[in-house]
Amino acid sequence: MSMTELRNSKTDLFNIASMLTNEELEVRDTVAEFVDRRVRPNIAKWFDEATLPMELIPEMAELGLFGMHIDGYGCGGRSAVEYGIAMQEMEAGDSGLRTVISVQGSLAMTAIAKNGSEEQKQTWLPKMAAGEVIGCFGLTEPTAGSDPSSMTTHAKLVDGEWVLNGSKRWIGLATVAQVAIIWAKVSVADAKAAGVHPDGDTRPDDELVVRGFIVPTETVGFRAEAIEQKMSMRASLQCDIVMDNAHLPVDAILPHNPGLRGPFSCLNEARYGIAWGALGAARDSIEVALEYASTRMQFGKPLTAYQLTQKKLADMTIALNKGQLMALQLGRANNAGTMDLHQISMAKLDNVRVAIEIARECRTILGGNGITGDYSPLRHANNLESVRTYEGTDEVHTLIVGQKLTGQAAFS
Length: 412
Known about the structure:
The chain is an alpha+beta fold.
């Protein structure tokens, strides 16, 4: 029985597939076939060797996965639900490989699409959609994670050029990217001089505002280095970036949406994709555990014949289906333009922590064999520890939901 058949007949207890359109099912099956053919046979080796398989980049682009939710500029213009389904199928293969699509599309490309000029969009988005240019997104810093307002990276306008200084950490794809979106603090005076300060904004000239910059990674003074000895996300790249007097032309700045709403709009796209993606890892873990338990004989019968194993499988599959229903409802609201920020936080928070619990429980069904690369649940669990932290920790998303409930901001 193929993974696709198993998925449809076993884990979809609530018949969620019947709630999907033909177009959505086509996206599901196309990405699932790619994962079955290109990812599953190789992912244990890539994870063990801490290798990002760059040969998959053009294949992902050919499938239309880069910026698939962006309209125009060579992008797919797919619906939010179609994008979410693609992320679920991709993360069923590996969270790190799903992150490649998220960094490229939800972060770097979305930053340009939402905050860039028409010229910037025309210059970069078609090449990024085609996989000819890889992007990265530099917001997080060594001491500025959950509180990006405390970033110290800054840009100054000197003799008609921007000069960037600072550092970023945990930046996906930075060592293989050709372009980086870097967020830095800029004075209002310099923004005015560059012609990008909003009309009617009366903030004082010496106030610092977060702005985005398009930085070719070949820029002198820009340096990226891969973070090594990771125990999670080993089949992807996370990097440190240092900018030491990196000079950029005046038009390198993203002209729209100054302040944190610029990067946050991108983070929300990534968080939305995670709410779907994490469930792919959870579903794959259940499928693997179910298949293993059906053939693993103990005391004269398969593990699936034991009540405790059935309880584990039943509880996990019910939790999976609930998460999938929440993701689908979130996607429908996204398509309709009615999605609220606290709903993204609810789905990212709960679906990721549920996915981790499922992956860990599935490992117990596999016994000692579950710690090897032959089976996916422990790899998924390790990866999901990173997913749980990035694009907003549990604490941050809990406080977003708490603020919605109480009307009180309790972040500090």
